[in-house]
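Office hours follow-up: a student asked to see two folded examples consecutively, so here they are.
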Amino acid sequence: MHEETVYDALTNAHDDAGHWAFGTGFDDPLAGVDTTVPDGVDPADLGAYCLMLGDDALVLAQRLTQWITAAPELEEEVAIGNTGLDLLGQARLLLARAGSVGVLGRSRSRATESIPDEDALAYFRDADEFRSTGLVEAENGDFGQTMVRLFVASTVRLAVFARLRDSRDPVLAAIAAKGVHELAYHRDHAARWVLRLGDGTPESHRRAQAGVDAVWPHLADLFTATDVESRLAAGGVAVDPADVRAEVRDVLTTVLERATLRVPEWPADAPPRGRTGEHGPERTGLLEGLQGLAREHPAATW
């Protein structure tokens, strides 16, 4: 019988098919989708690119969950949780796509061989195997900084996903087509908070400006393409991040100015360290929270 809800899935596991990230008994997220790699595309490149996009979503979702029970309003707590769930759904699809072309974390052991690819990639890779950016990995800061970071991250991601709808990879195109609607909401919601805080009381304005100043340096490496991105963009599969820079800059500038916030000087381009596996110390604590339980009980099922 088809399992329609998460609660059914958690209580009606079949053949011990446990999923750490998404509960037990869920179908393959790419079931029924043609996962054939397009002609002329290196599967390793495609997998690496899916990790970049998937890791950004997974890590930002984890950061947002840190606000649960701590948000300033109950309604906002629900909104933050829903945003995190949207990103987790995107992460699941993207990590599943990476797994479908053969990407595995080198930490994967015999004890985790039966764990679905998206769960193995989320929970059993080491820090240097993640390809997320410093923007999503950074500490939350206060609520104002969190909303500024969410506004910046969703603006960048929305611009990329809007273009990925035309990707030659049908899986990426389908993920992007669904994701743009979610990301448009994320961007709008965060932008409204930036406007409310920036053009609010002196204290909210001060905190919002401090959030902008803290987040802005993380823009430095967002628009520098890796070799993987350059090759896939040339083949019509990926998006060169430099191609979204002007759009992102216009959106960020417009909203910050309307919020009466000072727009910092645009940072100089820097190498994409996070995309190549270089991460700061904040990554360690983040992974401990994300992976701790799964690593403690790698063969467990819900």
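And the second, which I mentioned at the end of office hours:
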Amino acid sequence: MVEIFKTNICDEHLARTIVSELNLMYSDYLINIDLEDGDKVLRVESRGEIDVSGVIAFGNEKEVQIELIDD
């Protein structure tokens, strides 16, 4: 399963921090952020279900916009 999120992350340091903290919360997910993409895409991949609401709530806690991009 793969979910793609639009973010407002523009800084490489912040991107690394967000990915590290999400990896601690969701160790079975593969997570990366593409700062070159216009939507500053956060890509989350997992063999099982992805906790979309948890990822979005994490962004809210960190004052980072994370919103699901619907297919």
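Two things to take away from it. Residues 12-25 form the longest helix (14 residues). The chain has a mean pLDDT of 96.
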